[in-house]
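Q: How would the C-alpha cells look for this protein?
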Amino acid sequence: MTPELIAQYADVEGVPGDIRARLRSAETLYSAEEVEFAVDQLAVRLTVALQDRNPVLVPVLHGGLVFAGMLLRRLVFPLRQAYVHVGRYTDTQGGELSRYHHGGPDLKGETVVVVDDILDEGVTLTHLVDWALDEGASEVVTVVLLTKNNPRRPGGLQADHSALFCPDRFVVGCGLDIDGYGRNLPGLFALGEALGEQ
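A: Here is the predicted structure in C-alpha cell form.
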C-alpha cells in the first residue's frame, strides 16, 4: 500500500480531520509484502521453539488481534487460543493499565504465548507476563509484530520474539491504530515525527 492509497483511505467521509491529516503524512516503514515475509520467518522460529509444548496463544486485544490472525494460519502444530483485553490509553497517550477480560483455557501449568502488536515502553507486556505467571503459567513467551527503538524502555527489556523493528515513531497498520483508524492497513506506516508512547 502506497502513501497515495493511505491518503484515499483517509479521505473517506467521517474520518476526523486531524486523523486525515496524520494519515496523509504517513511514510511506509514496511510494505505488506515485507510484513508477510517477516511473519513467515517468525512463524518458522516459533514452530521450532514451541511445536512440542502444546501452548496457549493469548492475543492482546485489540492491537494484537490482526497479528495473531496472521500467525495462526502459519502455525500448524497443536495449540489452543485464549485472549486478554487490556487498556491504558485515554487518547494516544499512555495511562494507567488495567486488564478488562480474559477468555480461554485455564493457564495453570501451561506454556503461554502472549501475542501483541508492538513493544514500546514495555508496560503492557510486563504486566501481562506477571499476570500469566500469577495465573499459574509454567512459562510465558512474548511475541510482538514490531519492536520500537524507544529510549524510554527499561534497558534490556525485549520480547522473546519480534518480527520487525522500527524507530521511535507513531506507527499504524497490521493492528496498530490512531484513535481506532488504520488497524486494517496491510503494511506498517509511520506518522509524523517521534511521538513517544504508542
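The chain has one domain: 3-191.

The helical segments are 3-10, 17-24, 32-50, 63-72, 123-134.

Upvote if useful.
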